[in-house]
Amino acid sequence: MAHREVTPESPGLRTPPVTPAATPTKPVPGAENLAARQATIQALSSELETLKKQYNELVSRKILHPSWRLHKGSSAQPSRTTSPTYNSSPNHNISDPVTKVSPEPETTKSPNVDKPTQGYLRKRLPKSSTAQPSRTTSQTYNSSPTHDSPDPLTETSPRSRTTKPPTADKRIQTCLGKPLPRAQCESSGVGNNYIFQVTPKDFPDMTIIKIGVTKGPEHVRLAGIARDCEHLMVEAQDDPEHLPIRLYQRAETLAHQELREYRWPVGCRCKVRTHREYFHVPRDVALEVVQRWREFCRREPYDGQGQLRPFWRQRLDRFTSLCGVAESEADHWERSKRWTKFMNPKKHEIMWYDVKQMLSSLWKWRWLAVALVQSFSIAILALPRVYPIVMFAFMVTWVSAETSGIAQPLFPRAIGWAPAIIRRAEHDGLGDELTLLDGSVYIDPFDEEDDRDLEDVEMNEA
């Protein structure tokens, strides 16, 4: 039997495949977190593409200004010169007359994103438009510091966006700066500022305050109001600082301007259709306002022509720097502190004002003062000569004449007297002293009628 060599490649012999031993696989650290982050990034990318489409849609509809730019890695901020924006809500009827408004873009459901990622997106993406329509609603005011109902008498008509109602401080400043009416300037009589607590017939559960004036006794005025207006109750309030003053009408106007936001309409049975002196404020507030402005008007801050005196005028012009700015219009007591500070200047403020007034009055005479000092120096250096002393005396006389209120300089006035005296002396012949004294006539250069009368007299005498 022949020997045959058997090899693995022989067709008659098949060896089973040898499989290597299975080695245990170790998990890659952080693979799960990496997969989650990749999924989050993919979701954010899709959401970013959606937001870009919405942004382009808003820009095309002119809801957002093109100055909003999306920069990778930087927050999108609007430029300083942004155009007005409009409300994109369906209830808003204002549309762009040029660009046709396209339908609202389809909203896609955003994927679930954790809070840190949401915060990151808020910083990187543009803010949504929160612009309001250009039309503004009517302005209403609270009827009292503790009452929430609006004051129907002070509701204003719709205003433009740039128009603001005047504040209480502005109204008071305007009222103070106005000249007094001629009747108040010429009147020397006094009157009373009263405060009555009233329960109107139309509002039996409400108590309001009436701030008014009267020339007679207050109890007579109270009886007349109770009889004519038919209120349920009219009661006088105790005012320990009450006293009659001359400018009682201006004090009433100032109090009404300060409390105008709290004015309350009263349906009265008297001849007056609309009363403007009723206010829905606490009693202590009304009492403080009336006492403050009555004390201010008692100091006579207006001159004989009805103009505010210069000291109060300059304080009124510098009110903001002296007394501060109102932080809240509803805070009555803060406003009271500001105006109390305005009414009670300190001693150093008064002294500084007097010094500035004196310096300003002397400033126009500065060159005369320089000439006077120079003439005095020359007189001292030239002693014992008489001529410099005479010149110094002449300069003193000149400066005294200029600063004593004479309208024209001394020499032109003397030149105006000279022709009449010379002509009178020539007419008398000798021109003795008595004739010169009798012929001396005072001429007021500002009185043209006297000048014409003097010329007529001279022509008649000639």
User: Mean of the pLDDT scores?
Assistant: 70
Low-confidence stretches: 67-111, 128-163, 429-455
Our measurement of the CA-to-CA distance between the termini, rounded to an integer number of angstroms, reads: 193 Å
Number of beta-strand segments: 6
Q: Strand-and-helix sequence, N→C?
A: HHEEHHEEHEHEHHHHHHHHHH
Specify Rg, calculated over alpha carbons. Answer: 46 Å
Number of domains: 3
Largest sheet: 4 strands, antiparallel
Helix content: 40-55%
Strand content: 5-15%
Provide the spatial order of strands within the biggest beta sheet. Answer: 5-3-4-6
Shape: flat
How would you describe this protein?
The protein folds into 3 domains: about 40-75 and about 85-135, no CATH class; about 155 and about 165-350, no CATH class; about 365-460, no CATH class. Helices cover about 45% and strands about 5% of the residues. It contains 16 helices and 6 strands. Strands 5-3-4-6 form a 4-stranded antiparallel sheet, sandwiched between helices. A hairpin with a 2-residue loop joins strand 1 and strand 2 (about 145-150). The protein is flat. It starts with about 30 loop residues before the first helix and ends with a helix.
Layout of helices and strands, plus pairs?
Elements: H1 31-60, H2 115-124, E1 142-144, E2 147-150, H3 168-177, H4 182-186, E3 192-199, E4 208-214, H5 218-229, E5 233-236, H6 248-258, E6 278-279, H7 283-298, H8 310-317, H9 319-323, H10 332-343, H11 347-363, H12 366-381, H13 386-403, H14 410-428, H15 433-439, H16 448-461
Antiparallel strand pairs: 1-2, 3-4, 3-5, 4-6
